[in-house]
Specification:
two-stranded antiparallel ribbon, 3 domains, 7-stranded mixed sheet, single chain, binds 2-acetamido-2-deoxy-beta-D-glucopyranose, N-(1-d-carboxylethyl)-l-norvaline Dehydrogenase, domain 2, 8% strand
């Protein structure tokens, strides 16, 4: 192959995401080489490149031909299942790569695996990036949100490609150099945790409107379409509105009512909650979303439990009072938005804590910006988050940004009405309730933690501090309590 015909970049792993990202890159004018161990995947991709406009993509069946078809210093994106397949693909390709070449893992990888591989390939002089890619199939094909982290030099060598391939929003392409090591994967992981939260909160809004408010699918479709024009404007609200509009192709009614109520998951939400616990960061909304997925999985148990409680006189929904639907829709919209702010505050605080631990120097405002387009959590609201961190990069919590604080206060009465209503009729809203509890805990100057400290000191001599004097104290609680002054007084 002569020099002029070499590709700008290569992509290995041609499952759905890989194929679409390769076609996207080619469409942006970067000649690309594509490889997959399974020859049919390569041929399929080449065929699509021809059909979708004679895009500059060439397929390779041999890993050596593939690597050698790329211009030096070479950049190869790999999009295979996280874990062992990534190690195997790196082994296969690195054999033919040379010092200065770069490997970019675009999978949902655990950040420590990226840090390990980055070190391992460094010994061969190779550069490495772990790059979060969000946006599903559509995003990969027409513009994803990209979260690359690792060697800065590697990022610089493909920045021109990534900037063209990423989703474009009013303030630039949805890509930025996130930070060193596994920073890109970590940010993508938290993005997914936040996504769990958003989806859970939306499903609770749906449950309250449907199960308590009695809204039909048509009314739900209309409410969500309206919300998509409000402060909630976002991809997830938009697709939810669409979902209510889809008829069942196998029977009467809408498809949404025929779907088994059991949520799947792939692990990034669990990792987010585990990392939060490691770093002592409260993420109750995200944790509630994860727990809800676990509980949804117990379908047979839940059906059995519903029967047992019904036999004891407890119905699924406890009361059916007539509600003002318009008022309820308005309240739920406000509750959803306020809950969402709490969830993002948790996710951002987790990112900041990890950034401090690892020295990543994450720019939270910039991360909010690259999530404005392409990814699943894209929303008008992310622009407000970006602005909040631009106003104050050291913001302790999104909740106390002046604008968000005002928005929370404006919505808190409606939020409490929705959560109280749900509790009173026995419809669980774990995401909204834990967001509200998070807010009510965070905004209170004094919590009942004094009592917990007293208990700890009582049984374990763990000591306590005082509100009025410096120092550490321990009290002989048991002995003093025996003197029992309250009881003595009341006997008098
Ligand atoms: C190629 O395709 C198969 C699925 O057909 C997939 O399992 C494999 O990981 C892909 N990637 C590479 C680099 O071969
Ligand atoms: C949601 O809002 C966006 C942005 O205004 C718009 O492009 C989209 O068509 C809307 N979708 C629905 C279903 O209303």
């Amino acid at each position: 192959m002569d020099g002029a015909a070499l590709s700008r970049i290569g992509l290995a792993g041609l499952a759905v995401m890989g194929q679409n990202l390769a076609l996207n890159i080619a469409e942006k004018g970067f000649p690309i080489s594509a490889y997959n161990r399974t020859a049919s995947k390569v041929d399929e991709t080449v065929k699509r490149a021809v059909q979708e406009g004679n895009l500059p993509l060439n397929g390779h069946h041999s890993p050596q031909d593939f690597v050698l078809s790329i211009k030096k210093p070479r950049s190869v994106i790999i999009l295979v299942k996280a874990g062992l397949p990534v190690d195997q693909t790196i082994d296969t390709l690195a054999r033919y790569m040379e010092p200065g070449d770069c490997i970019v893992d675009g999978g949902n990888e655990w950040y420590e695996n990226t840090e390990r591989r980055l070190q391992a390939v460094k010994e061969k002089g190779l550069l490495y990036l772990g790059m979060g890619v969000s946006g599903g199939e559509e995003g990969a094909r027409y513009g994803p949100s990209l979260m690359p982290g690792g060697t800065l030099e590697a990022y610089k060598s493909i920045e021109d490609v990534l900037q063209k391939v990423a989703a474009q929003v009013d303030d630039g392409p949805c890509v930025t150099y996130v930070g060193e090591g596994g920073a890109g994967n970590f940010v993508k992981m938290v993005h997914n945790g936040i996504e769990y939260g958003d989806m859970q909160l939306i499903s609770e809004a749906y449950d309250v409107l449907k199960s308590v408010g009695g809204l039909t699918n048509q009314e739900l479709h209309e409410a969500f379409s309206e919300w998509n024009k409000s402060e909630l404007e976002s991809f997830l609200i938009e697709i939810t509105s669409d979902i209510f509009n889809v008829k069942d192709d196998k029977g009467p009614g809408e498809l949404v009512d025929k779907i088994l109520d059991k949520t799947g998951m792939k692990g990034t939400g669990k990792w987010t909650v585990q990392q939060a616990a490691e770093l002592s960061i409260a993420v109750p909304t995200i944790a509630a979303s994860l727990d809800s997925r676990f509980l949804s999985g117990l379908k047979e148990e839940r059906v059995a439990a519903a029967n047992i409680f019904r036999a004891n006189g407890l119905e699924d929904i406890l009361t059916h009072k007539k509600l003002d639907k318009k008022q309820l829709i308005d309240d739920v919209r406000k509750a959803l938005y306020a809950s969402k702010i709490c969830s993002y505050a948790q996710g951002m605080n987790l990112l900041r804590a990890k950034s401090l631990e690892k020295g990543w120097n994450l720019n939270l405002g910039e991360l909010a910006r690259i999530w404005k387009g392409g990814c699943i959590i894209r929303a008008a609201f992310l622009d407000r988050i970006k602005k909040a961190y631009n106003r104050n990069p050291n913001l302790a919590s999104l909740l106390i940004d002046p604008e968000f604080a005002r928005e929370m206060v404006e919505r808190q009465a409606a939020w409490r009405r929705v959560v109280s209503l749900a509790i009173s009729v026995g419809v669980s809203t774990p995401g909204m309730s834990s967001s509200l509890a998070y807010f009510d805990t965070y905004r209170r100057a004094r919590l009942p933690a004094n009592l917990v400290q007293a208990q700890r000191d009582y049984f374990g001599a763990h000591t306590y501090e005082r509100v009025d004097k410096d120092g550490t104290y321990h009290t002989e609680w048991h002995k003093l309590a025996k003197q029992n002054k309250f009881a003595a007084k009341s006997r008098m």
